[in-house]
Amino acid sequence: MPTPLPDALLIFKPDSAYRLRARAGIWGWLSSERDWNIESLEWFQPPAALIESHYDFLQGRPFFPWLVDFMTALPVVVGRITASEHALGLMRYDLGETQIGKARPGSLRERYGIFGGLNCLHLSDAAETGAAEVKRWAEHVQLDEVKVHDLDDDGAKPDHTFHLRSLASQVASDVHAGSASRMIRELLAEETNLGGQELEAMCRITLGALA
Known about the structure:
Elements: E1 7-12, H1 14-17, H2 20-30, E2 36-44, H3 48-54, H4 64-72, E3 76-83, H5 85-95, H6 108-112, E4 121-123, H7 127-138, H8 161-172, H9 177-191, H10 196-208
Antiparallel strand pairs: 1-3, 1-4, 2-3
């Protein structure tokens, strides 16, 4: 009997879960299941305690309160994949480095990431980490069934990634920060299907990354 492949946790963070063209582009890569298998996908809004535990190694950093808000303000797409250690390494290479400014050219984060920690996806970095993360999240969300089937639907929305990145740099540098922030809000509204309080939450957590 073949040895089961290790688990890894995957999360479409808000900046990819709701920016429809970015989400569809990333899904096109993920759904190829080139060297991995998608075992589950589900929309889920994590509680703060889960995010604090998931990112416990970052507690005490100045951006930690923003990170918790970012990951809990809206539902995200959470999934479990199975992949060999080698395949997981290839996936992380395709994904690119965590910080957008350092992401490898041609990587998913270089293509769709906006700025800094607005980096689209979480993906376990090793089999041991994946096992621990899947165990932790499985206490809160079902991780044994694919329940999300429309991630390829971009809603004919525009992709403003590079414009958003330019504006984010201005806000972070406090150059025309007010007008750049307003334009970021306008572009996010064009990219998503969100409205009302959900759109306001999306704008808040995006701009919060630039503070």
